[in-house]
Amino acid sequence: MSNFDNRVKEELHVQTEKHTQKMKDEIWNELEQELFTNKRYKGESNKLKKRKRGKAIVWLIASAAILIMFSLQTKTGQALKSEIKDLFVPEKEVIQNIEGNDEKTEVQLNEGSNSEYVIYVDEERYKLTKGEESDIISSIIPPPKNFPEVTMEIKQVVNEKPEDLILKIEAELKKEFPELQAIEEVTEPVTGYLLHGAAGLEPESNIVHTYVISNGKEGSFVIMQKYFLLAAEGHGARFYRMLETFEIIE
């Protein structure tokens, strides 16, 4: 579970019960218009509708949470309000070090399959494609000819814990990466296990960078990054920064 999910759930549950039915009705009426009414977006393209509706829903959820929190005058309440606002901002600017240079980048909030997680994506360079079994963040610009793909696959395995699943993934990866590094426990950019392998020292050599983390229940998330050696300080660094924003949600 994410760093503040437990506190948020507890505080929201307690504070929601204290608020009047009027406030609940007002919030629901606004959400209902955004979720189930198309009038606001008449005449716009489907792509634009989807983007606007998605942002509106995110802001409404955040606003509802912040309204509920408003009665909290303690330091905990103020901190929670700040964390919720930061989590649900639709767009934000981050500074990341790419190939030795600091770079300002606009990133956009994306929601994973079945609302299992959120992550900020640099949509000028990457796109998130949702699938039935996994989601894939891929480079918009294709790699040079004869170079490997550039992807970050995010997959949930609901019935296997990280400590068990990482051993199975290690065995599979060793078939392609005989020099696979030993399993490493990490706390950044996520908390869990890491496997790293390189299939050579040429610019086009395959690189795999795989994290296995808890899904907060009895399962795991597997996040497998693939790129080539020449892109380690480019795509590799950008994937790292994106993964820092990864949050599991209920």
Helices and strands in order:
Layout: H1 5-18, H2 21-36, H3 46-69, H4 75-88, E1 91-98, E2 101-111, E3 117-121, E4 126-130, E5 135-139, E6 151-157, H5 162-176, E7 184-186, E8 192-198, E9 206-214, E10 220-228, H6 235-244, E11 247-248
Antiparallel strand pairs: 1-2, 2-3, 3-11, 4-5, 5-6, 6-10, 7-8, 8-9, 9-10
Helix pairs in contact: 2-3, 3-4
Shape: globular
- The strands making up the biggest β-sheet line up spatially as 4-5-6-10-9-8-7
Assigned CATH superfamily of the largest domain: Mog1/PsbP, alpha/beta/alpha sandwich
Which CATH top level class of the largest domain fits?
Alpha Beta
CATH fold-level name of the largest domain: Protein Transport Mog1p, Chain A
Overall pLDDT, averaged?
A: 78
- Major beta sheet summary: 7 strands, antiparallel
Question: Regions with pLDDT < 50 over 5+ consecutive residues?
Answer: none
Rg from C-alpha positions?
20 Å
What does it look like?
The longest helix is centred in the first third of the chain and has 24 residues, at 46-69. The radius of gyration is 20 Å and the shape is globular. The termini are close together. With 250 residues, the chain is of the alpha+beta class. The chain has a seven-stranded antiparallel beta sheet, with helices on both faces. Strands 1-2-3-11 form a four-stranded antiparallel beta sheet, covered by helices on one side. The chain folds into two domains: 5-88, no CATH class; 91-248, Protein Transport Mog1p, Chain A. The protein is 37% helix and 28% strand. The protein contains six helices and eleven strands.
